[in-house]
Amino acid sequence: MSSNDGYNRNEDPNNGISTSDDIGSSRMPSSSTRLQPQIVPNEATHLKGQSKQAYFSDEKVLIPETETIGFSWRKLWAFTGPGFLMSIAYLDPGNIESDLQSGAAAKYKILWVLLWATVLGLLMQRLAARLGVVTGLHLAEMCYRQYKKVPRFILWIMIEIAIVGSDMQEVIGTAIAIYLLSNKVIPLWGGVLITIVDTFTFLFLDKYGLRKLEFLFGLLITVMAVTFGYEYVVSAPNQGEVLEGMFIPWCTDCNSQVLLQAVGVVGAVIMPHNLYLHSALVKSRDVDRRQPTKVREANFYFFIEASVALFVSFIINLFVVAVFAHGMFGKTNADVLQVCENQPMYEDAVHSFGNNTEIIDADLYKGGLFLGCTFGAAAMYIWGVGILAAGQSSTMTGTYAGQFSMEGFLNLQWPRWRRVLFTRLIAIIPTFFLAFFSRMEDLTNMNDILNAVMSLQLPFAAIPTIAFTSCSAIMGEFVNGVGNKIISILLTVVVIAVNLYFVINQVEALSIEGGVLAVVCIFAILYLLFNLYLVIHMIACMGNKCFMNNRWVQKWVLPSQNSFSIKNANSTYASELSLHDSGIPVFSLSYRNY
């Protein structure tokens, strides 16, 4: 394909870049390899096995050259795509359910929590994107080079748990959507089985081109915006109260349940595997990392695109919170039944809500019934379409996150269909049995547990991201400044503390005793120790000489070749200069010792 179509395809699977054998050893690429003319440095193909690993491995979007100096809409359009794919994780069924529950429990009082959680997510996504742009390596690949074998393997396991947990939420959301849209013809367990098939459909779509695949994701986001926006318009919440809840960071007369709901919002919004995903997605653009101005330009446009994408995701989440804050807050199950009396879904409402004076315990299915009873059957089906779009889009991006994680941490490459099957089967087996033998309420309870599980995994993405982007040997002139380091660390500590509070509350709610409690305590101790290990590594990354020169840290924490040593960095400088012609970015090599 010619370069006029907006892409650049590489015939050479390695594209003149050293293979994983070269990267893992102390050998330099041969002079003949270095002198080959390079079209686009395709870092995504440095792993062994196959020439096509990721959705962008054999085509990259070219960045147009413009005569005007300053902002360019054409360049922004060329960089548009990765941020919107990343933002889908902020719109998965787990997030949507957390939104409606927070609205039903606290009305508009904790909208500001959703707003600032999204802002914090943007800050972390910015760091992840910068890592991928500057180094040419995504977060998992960097972990493979910067952590020793055992902690690297533990990190991979933790991220896989987060991915599978997220996938289970997507299975639950999709199954509930199919159950609603089929008017209960397809049972929950049937919807779970259908998700085995539907996740493979997008594998046939990406062969039509990168931009078309990104357009599909954009279409799914549009479907969510239209469907949930429709519910917002027909419910007509008080706009003044919405704005007050969004911008006044206070919660008057809020009990422990509301506080827990606010914690759940934070845990649901910031997904750990999303940092790994975003750092890889930015590699789909043709950025010449040999030119700092091009790297700086890419960072600028990717930040704008991510800001717009997360703003859209925030608006969609806001729609959901406001709809159920307006309609469900303070309502009892009997109040809903009264509204449903003359509606065709009355029997379903009786079975789901029960005729009692208890406050509504909202979930995705009850939310659909409530909308159907209040605004007509069309509102219920439109809600189902929105949930289906959320589940399908999140499934696709979750698959890519799992693929990048496996390729990076294990230096292992699987075909996409095998990766999809592996993740989906692990997610489907427990979900299927729960859907087959249990009730709808049990699926909702599983969602809460999964949010707690994913909250536990957040440090395993946030700490490495801050560590690598704060290391001058890795990032060069694009390293985090002091202010950026302080803000990112403080915000991450706050979010991790909030998530731990949420997890502890969930464990207490399960009333665990005896041997199971002992196992949980042992796990908690090991969990904290591993976090301490990562923090020590992060401090060394930031250039603390006390930690860098400590023998214990050098032996057990840092890589075998001290990647943060100024001496080692200087000794490789001449070699790095000679690699410029090969298209390998100097910033991604400054932590290597060839």
UniProtKB/TrEMBL annotation:
Output the Gene Ontology cellular-component terms: endosome membrane; plasma membrane
Looking at the record, which segments are called Disordered?
1-43
Record GO terms (molecular function): cadmium ion transmembrane transporter activity; iron ion transmembrane transporter activity; manganese ion transmembrane transporter activity
Topology relative to the lipid bilayer, per the entry, is: Multi-pass membrane protein
Keywords on record:
Membrane, Transmembrane, Transmembrane helix, Transport
- One Pfam match, given by its short name, reads Nramp
Where does this protein have compositionally biased stretches of type Polar residues? 1-36
Instruction: Show the stretches that span the lipid bilayer.
Output: 111-133, 186-205, 217-238, 258-277, 298-325, 369-390, 421-438, 458-479, 486-504, 516-541
Q: Where in the cell is it found?
A: Membrane
Q: Which InterPro entries match?
A: NRAMP_fam (IPR001046)
- The keyword Membrane belongs to this UniProt entry's keyword annotation: yes
Q: Main site of residence?
A: membrane
Q: Is the Transmembrane helix keyword given for this protein?
A: yes
HAMAP family per UniProt: NRAMP
The text of the family note is: Belongs to the NRAMP family.
| Record-given protein name | Protein Malvolio isoform X2
Q: What is the lineage of its organism?
A: Eukaryota, Metazoa, Ecdysozoa, Arthropoda, Hexapoda
List the gene name. 101889828
